[in-house]
């Protein structure tokens, strides 16, 4: 019933208010004439109660509930799992039904915002970006398939849509189809059920460029995999371009058939590394530019973007969500975007990012990974086989925690902050030239962040 009330509220308060204020609410109780809701932060609680309390009460009553008053609560201080953080911000309004004409094409709609222009390039994603650009520029099929992989929210879908947009401009006659692996499966199952498998095959085999997002989804789904394999081969045989994404490298997708894995590896496999501080800051700056146009008159204090880039390291989606909320708050309360305001209205997101790995955990995982003793992480040994892992741990400590260099130094057996700095620089340098180190770090990072 709250869902129904939400639909009504969406109409009365408008989409942007709804997304910012109503969607993050959770109904926790409704008894004895009191409807209780949970808001993610105190700030949101006060704001919603003051500005939307009446509307919510009215809609609840319209929906036939006997409600005397509403209560808003804020959750107890407890860490929120990182994967839930984006929920309050990103909760989408109910989607409009898809147009019928779209149904005949095996594709999903593209997000108009996901273009190459809006993609910020930094060290962690420059290879993936360059490969995507190359494929989008067409010409002889060079990398087939192009396989993009990386963690959640690092820009895989964005890049795929960007390729599709670019192809539509450069080769308007080409039939470019983008869809998620889940949609692929859904269509396949539907075709089976409706005995239209020949149509299905024909449809997919007649495209010029096929993009399948999040292919890990079909792992373990045997008949879908089988069909995917045949589609894949048929297209490659015809010299058609295929672009695939997944959350990990082909070889690491569990329950994916070997022959598919090896097929996926035939082309170019590139990964999107977790963002670094510079990239996050670059993304924030770019998005802020766009917001400035949207909210003229809003000012932002120095250091806010730096603060966010430093504190929100999980993924770009969360980062964007934070910025969106920040601008919405500031414009509603008519205040400058200051550090205080950011801290106040992003408590939940910041708190979740705080639920971070500790330096001890990092040292333990790194030691395990390189098969060295934990005590060597903080000990004095200087042989390369121990010093290198130690530097990796220093690097990760800087990246994944909010500890300062002197603090990190203290936890590495009382080393000086310049030693830590040197270690971090060394790793940064190696990451550019030594593929193994880059992969090790990527892996460790995923392990630690999951
Ligand atoms: P993935 O598919 O890897 O989970 P998405 O492509 O959906 O991630 O990206 C999540 C959000 O972050 C999107 O809104 C996207 O526009 C944004 N994003 C990710 N990387 C970048 C980038 N380098 N520049 C600009 N926006 C980015
Ligand atoms: Mg995606």
Automatic annotation (TrEMBL):
Region entry Domain I, interacts with DnaA modulators, spans: 1-91
Comp. bias intervals (Low complexity): 88-98
A single MF term (Gene Ontology): ATP binding
SUPFAM superfamilies from the UniProt entry: P-loop containing nucleoside triphosphate hydrolases, TrpR-like
One Pfam family matching this protein: DnaA_N
Key words, A-Z: ATP-binding, Cytoplasm, DNA replication, DNA-binding, Lipid-binding, Nucleotide-binding
Record-linked PROSITE patterns: DNAA
Residues of the AAA+ ATPase domain: 142-272
Residue ranges of the region described as Disordered: 88-107
Listed InterPro entries: AAA+_ATPase, Chromosome_initiator_DnaA, Chromosome_initiator_DnaA-like, Chromosome_initiator_DnaA_CS, DnaA_C, DnaA_dom, DnaA_N_dom, DnaA_N_sf
Gene3D superfamilies xref list: 1.10.1750.10, 1.10.8.60, 3.30.300.180, P-loop containing nucleotide triphosphate hydrolases
Source organism, top-level taxon: Bacteria
GO biological process, one term: DNA replication initiation
A Gene Ontology cellular-component term: plasma membrane
Positions that bind ATP: 153, 155-157
Region (Domain IV, binds dsDNA): 331-450
Cell compartments where the protein resides: Cytoplasm
Function: Plays an essential role in the initiation and regulation of chromosomal replication. ATP-DnaA binds to the origin of replication (oriC) to initiate formation of the DNA replication initiation complex once per cell cycle. Binds the DnaA box (a 9 base pair repeat at the origin) and separates the double-stranded (ds)DNA. Forms a right-handed helical filament on oriC DNA; dsDNA binds to the exterior of the filament while single-stranded (ss)DNA is stabiized in the filament's interior.
NCBIfam families reported for this sequence: DnaA
Family: Belongs to the DnaA family.
Entry text on domains: Domain I is involved in oligomerization and binding regulators, domain II is flexibile and of varying length in different bacteria, domain III forms the AAA+ region, while domain IV binds dsDNA.
Record note on quaternary structure: Oligomerizes as a right-handed, spiral filament on DNA at oriC.
UniProt name for this protein: Chromosomal replication initiator protein DnaA
Protein's organism: Paenirhodobacter huangdaonensis
């Amino acid at each position: 019933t709250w869902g129904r009330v939400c639909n009504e509220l969406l109409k009365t308060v408008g989409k942007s208010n709804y997304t910012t204020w109503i969607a993050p609410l959770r109904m926790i109780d409704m008894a004895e004439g009191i409807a209780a809701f949970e808001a993610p932060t105190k700030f949101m609680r006060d704001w919603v109660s003051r500005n939307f309390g009446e509307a919510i009460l009215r809609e609840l009553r319209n929906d036939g509930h006997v409600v005397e008053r509403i209560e808003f609560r804020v959750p107890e201080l407890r860490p929120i799992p990182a994967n839930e953080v984006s929920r309050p911000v990103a909760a989408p309004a109910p989607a409009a039904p898809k147009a019928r004409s779209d149904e005949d094409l095996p594709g999903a709609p593209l997000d108009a915002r996901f273009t190459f222009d809006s993609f910020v390039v930094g060290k962690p994603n420059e290879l993936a970006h360059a490969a995507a650009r190359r494929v989008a520029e067409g010409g002889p099929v060079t990398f087939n398939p192009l396989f993009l992989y990386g963690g959640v929210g690092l820009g895989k879908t964005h890049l795929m849509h960007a390729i599709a947009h670019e192809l539509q401009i450069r080769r308007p006659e080409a039939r470019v189809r983008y869809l998620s692996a889940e949609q692929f499966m859904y269509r396949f199952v539907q075709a089976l059920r409706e005995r239209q498998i020949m149509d299905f095959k024909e449809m997919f085999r007649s495209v010029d460029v096929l993009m399948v997002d999040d292919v890990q989804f079909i792992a373990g789904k045997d008949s879908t995999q089988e069909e995917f394999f045949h589609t894949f081969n048929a297209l490659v045989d015809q010299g058609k371009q295929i672009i695939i994404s997944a959350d990990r490298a082909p070889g690491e997708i569990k329950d994916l058939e070997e022959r598919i894995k090896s097929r996926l590896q035939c082309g170019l496999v590139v990964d999107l590394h977790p963002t670094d501080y510079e990239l996050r800051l670059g993304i924030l700056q770019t998005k802020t530019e766009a917001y400035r146009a949207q909210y003229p008159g809003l000012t932002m204090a120095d250091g806010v973007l730096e603060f966010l880039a430093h504190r929100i390291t999980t993924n770009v989606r969360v980062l964007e969500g934070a910025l969106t909320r920040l601008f919405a708050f500031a414009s509603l309360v008519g205040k400058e975007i200051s550090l205080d305001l950011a801290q106040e209205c992003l408590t939940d997101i910041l708190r979740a990012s705080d639920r971070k790995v500790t330096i001890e955990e990092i040292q333990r995982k790194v030691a395990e990974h390189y098969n060295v003793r934990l005590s060597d992480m903080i000990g004095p040994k200087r042989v390369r086989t121990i010093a290198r892992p130690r530097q990796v741990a220093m690097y990760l400590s800087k990246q994944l925690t909010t500890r300062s260099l002197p603090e990190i130094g203290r936890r590495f057996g009382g080393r000086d902050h310049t030693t830590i700095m040197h270690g971090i620089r060394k790793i940064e340098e190696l990451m550019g030239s030594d593929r193994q180190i880059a992969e090790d770090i990527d892996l460790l990072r995923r392990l630690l962040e999951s």
